[in-house]
Task: structure prediction
Amino acid sequence: MMESLRDLPVPDTAETAKNWRIGEEISSRGVVATILRHEVRQLTATFRFRASAILVIFLMVLAAVTSAARYRGEVLEQAALADDHARELAGATVDRTVDLLHPAIKTPWRLSLVVDGGQSATPDVYSQALSPLVTPRLFRIHGGNERLPLSKPIDWSFVIRMVLSLTAFLLGYDAVCGERRAGTLKLVLTYPVARWKVFTSKLLAIWSCLAVPFLGAAVLSLVIARVGGIPFQIEDLTKAGLVAVVGLWALFLSALVALLVSSLARDSSTSLSILAWLWVTAVIVVPAVGGLLAHRQHPIPSEGETSREMKAVDQRIAQEHAGREGRWRPLKWAAADGFAWERTSAEAETRRFVQKEEVRRRILQRKLGQARLARSLASLSPASLTEDLAERLTGTGLERDASFLQQARAFRPTLAGWLGALDASDPESPHILFFSGYVSQRPVAPGSIPRFVFHEASVRQGLAAARPMLAIFAGETLALAAAALFCFSRYDAG
Amino acid sequence: MFFAIVRKELSNHMASFRFWVGALLTIILAFSSTLIAAQDYDLRLESYQQRVSSAQRELQTVSVYSYLQPVAVRPPEPLSVLDQGFESRLGTEVAIHPFSIPVAATAGYRGNELLVSLPTVDLTTIVSGVLGLLALLLTHDSILGEREGGTLRAVFAHGVKRSTLLAGKLTGGLLTLCLPLAVGLLVTLSLFRFEAGISLTIDQWLRVAGLVGAYVAYLCLMLLLGLLISLHSRSTSRALGLSVLGWFVLTIVIPGAARAVAGDLVETGGARRGSEREIAGLMAEQDRRLAEELRRDPLRTAFSGHTAISFANGEHRAVRYRNGSAAYYDSLADYYRFEVKSGTRYASQVLTIQRRYEGRLRAGERLGTGLAVISPAFLLDLLSESFAGTSVAEYDRFLADCRRYRLTLLAYMERKGAFRSWRWFTDDPPGGLHPWPGYLGLSPGEVTPERVGPLFSRLSEPEVAARVRRDREVIQRDPARRLPLEDRPRFIYRGPEFSSSLRHGAAAAGVLLAFNVLAAAAVWARFRRYDLGEG
Result:
């Protein structure tokens, strides 16, 4: 860049010459286009541009290949789990069904290529039985190779947050101070050209140099992922398009930062040093400190605290029922007194389940709260804000996990209603819901069982969720643009 | 002259803006990450202590050998505060019993599963990320800048040898980096001491020293890479650009891409499902054989006056019978001898299947390591995990200890005749049996098949039921029923030692040192012929 504009041709069109003579400003479109063309030519001839473009394309292709492989693996895992459940249900009676764990499965995230949002690591199954004696389980079917270090998958969001921002810095760090050192900036500014036009041309040059490989790689990665087996739907492509727009916007923001720092620094080395540390702060330090502060400010209960709460529930139930709980007799003996003991025991167990479920729900809320706080604190960095924005627009991340848990819990009443109706239609059943041995022995038709279907957030919901972040991002962009323009207009080119 | 160069480098670096930013970030991150790591360690320690004491309490109530299933618990590693590694990801406890050979641990405090998408930070991350970048920023213009400024020629005019200048620059840079490193380490260790109240043992101090050695070797390599870039670049800004890009690729892109390739492209889900299916098949076969064996004697299957009416079962085929007859117990002893014998045989077969799956995981691990080995940050990660005792190898060592302990426990049980005697499944004393017909004034032989039902129903009569309950309470409190287990072998897991850490990290250390030697040779080869007037 420092050698750029050295050989900028003097505007030689008749119109320009005329304007030049009468001291008017050169036609803005012509100047912007000329400088832009020149800057782009200069930038694309550098090693750093080629290295950056190759890196962006390589990482996005890698993201497509790995996310497609992950998607196929997850589909197989979930299908195997669903098959196991179907096998358990085949020929099962109402009585057997109450003890079975019914898995609510979070479908594999099709846009993992675009923004994973932790979906390849967070729990994807919530298994619950209707019997209050069976504890629900929240788990991940298969978390990958546990012998490998944990790392976030590579996706577009990674490229936008880390690669595009750094490469924008690498392309723009000497856009102003480098030219000043080489003396070419002074030359350019001797022309009757408004400074904002020079600034805009430089900005657009950096932006377009990275936007083209990014968009090209984005389309290529979508094609590879589709061929790799991810069945994208129209809505997915819309969401991916929105994330690409966010990526271009974030790239614009990074280019603004680079120009701002370049306008403030005395030399290229200082400029890049400042930008490198800014990048480390935005990409590593702020999100990490955000996570650490969330741990500190919003701790989740320890195992000891949880187990003490669970014991307290047991003690409460024991006191309330004064030892009359937990008495179960064979049917023929129990029928003699109308299942009096069993009804008391069932009531106690149901209350125990409800109270323990409340403890579990509270813990999960604490975890969600902690994760939300960490995310909010991390969003102080524009890099994390971009990721948050992409997650909200596509409907992934923490909100997808929260939505899954909510939907999975809401599935229990549906199951209970269905099985309760089956039991009610059997006059021979003692109707002690839902305790194995004391409900109907009739078989259930496997096809009649309600299936859990996970509903993804729509584009409209995503846009609504992202609105506050979009406002913040727009505010940051405007402030940066104003600051960068101000610094450039006051810059001493000599 | 060497010391003069070192002093000059040190003072120049310390006067620079980039040094202070790097140092400040290092200290901020070290402080905040230690606070959380110490809190995390406390939680894991609490969880460990609770688990150990609850396992101890459970063992004190064991009255039959089938319930003798000691739990081996892996204590939390204090040095995880420096490098978290796999510490909170892998399980911490293993139940030891004859029917399974440990290949994986379960449970353990794993924190918030919804926070996995946020990066975890520890001292190793700080060194590889922040100080690694600082090393490149300090040396990228070390030679080039002096040449551009004309001072390099002046230095050589004073008769300074090239090797002295190079060594001085390297040492000066290293000493500069050691300052924030030392402060970061000091902050981490003192905060950990204050927060968690743990004092380190000599062996742990040795491992900390090893860790510091790894950090220094890594920083030295990054300085050498910076020098190399400085020697090969035509301008400082170009050198700086190359340094930043190189750091990004070596520290973030290569490890991330290698993990992505090894994790997502080496398919392990199918292997796991396959092994689970095979194991399920084996278990079904075992259950079928056990059911056949059980049916061989009608005394065991048909309810009679001999049958034990009190039965409890626990995990891993633990059973306890009470109120049965001698004939019934003799028959059960035959069955459980068969169960233990076939169970240990099936355990070996299951282990073979699990090993095959583990082999698949190890193949992914090897591929990931192979792809990322050119990244100094990855090598530092491997090495520091070894010294911190948070590596997968350390987890494997714990499991190996569990397997050895299982064999010792089985030998102990064999010596005690656990598998041959009634004591495997009942704590009823052979001389004081109380079969259930006794509550009705009958002997087991007097209960004919057609009378079993009515007679058994009489046990719920208030007077009889009260007697049964009273007897149960007496048995429950009777200390003579407990197994004398004072002489049982104890599980001893000595955390990682310096020598074993060194062994585990030897390969990574070797490669890191080799890279240092190669980089030093390349720097020297270039600098020897470096034209002072170039450019």
